[in-house]
Amino acid sequence: MARALIHVPPTAKRGEVIEIKTLISHVMETGYRIGVTGEPIPRDIIDDFVCTYNGEEVFRATLFPAIAANPFITFYTVATESGTLTFAWTDLHGATQVQSAPITVE
Amino acid sequence: MRHSRRQILQAAGAIAGDIGLLRLTVRPAAATPEMMQDAVRSAIGEAPVQKGKVKLDLPPLVENGNSVPCTVTVESPMTKDDFVKAIHIFNEKNPQPNVISVKLGPRAGRAAFSTRIRLADSQTVTAIAEMSDGTCWSDDIYVIVTLAACIEEPK
User: Fold this and answer.
1) Interface predicted TM-score (ipTM)
2) Angle at B67 (CA atoms; ends B52, B126), nearest 5 degrees
3) Interatomic CA distance for residues A31 and A74, integer angstroms
4) Do B98 and A64 touch (CB under 8 A)?
5) Residue ranges per structural domain of chain A
6) DSSP state of A41
């Protein structure tokens, strides 16, 4: 769907609260703008973002048209065990982009 | 056929009224504070909202409403018994009152997140946090926007 950037610390101490930054390139067209032909430009937004840590959901966001283009979301989670963080963005048409990042917990 | 002054004025008024109606139907109506209250109620139910515990960070003066950095932090130990369930952001004057709704749990460790939002006008932005015990806490901030989002034409 688009290019996504994720920043997860590669290593963390057990129990440490880590900051995760995500950015995905997307127009986030609101559906309220009028195009050059006078027709409204159809809405095209990512409306769901979810982060799972070894399969367990740790963060979920529902996005509305008031989120700026190229949605940038920063949040936190507790580093519990080594594994994979998986990020999934879903748009209004149901297309999902999944990306993951490994983490090593000492 | 001659028209009286009254007839002409009536006709002019009717045309002006039509234009007003047309404008209303073509332009998306901005959300109102009442719409925001409805959105708040549909998100959190009937729980009373108290001020405090939540910190909403937005620049008080925004040059470009298309991308406004926004951070919400909630005071909470984030333990198994006492954590923040959800955080919602609402606005008064964008076409839609909702901005973002976030679901959290004890696994988050810290009840905070940041994003970038669009603001169509100078307005009050509200953040509401739902706690695991069912209480709701809020913070709001009035933001002045000099260049509004949603009005510019695409290139």
Assistant:
1) 0.90
2) 20
3) 25
4) yes
5) 4-105
6) P
- 3-class secondary structure per residue, B35-78: HHHHHHHHHHCCCCEEECCEEEECCCEEEECCCEEEEEEECCCC
> Does B102 sit within 8 Å of A59, measured CB to CB?
yes
Interface test mutation site (partner A, options B35, B64, B72, B104, max chain A beta carbons within 10 A): B104
Residues 6+ apart with CB under 8 A from A19: A9, A74, A75, A76
Predicted TM-score of the model (pTM): 0.82
Q: Which CATH number fits domain A4-105: 3.30.590.10, 3.40.50.300, 3.30.300.20, 2.60.40.10?
A: 2.60.40.10
β partners of residue B101: A62, B88
d(CA B102, CA A36): 35
Element (H, E) at A83: strand A83-91
pLDDT, tens only, A45-78: 999 999 999 999 999 999 999 999 999 999 999 9
Query: Measured between CB atoms, does B68 come within 8 Å of chain A?
Result: yes
Q: Is the pLDDT of residue B47 over 50?
A: yes
Chain B partners within 8 Å of A53 (Cβ): 107
Q: Quote the Cα angle for A104-B101-A50, to 5°.
A: 35
Record the tokens describing residue B131, joined without a space.
């706690």
Which pairing describes strands A83-91 and A96-105: parallel, antiparallel, or unpaired? antiparallel
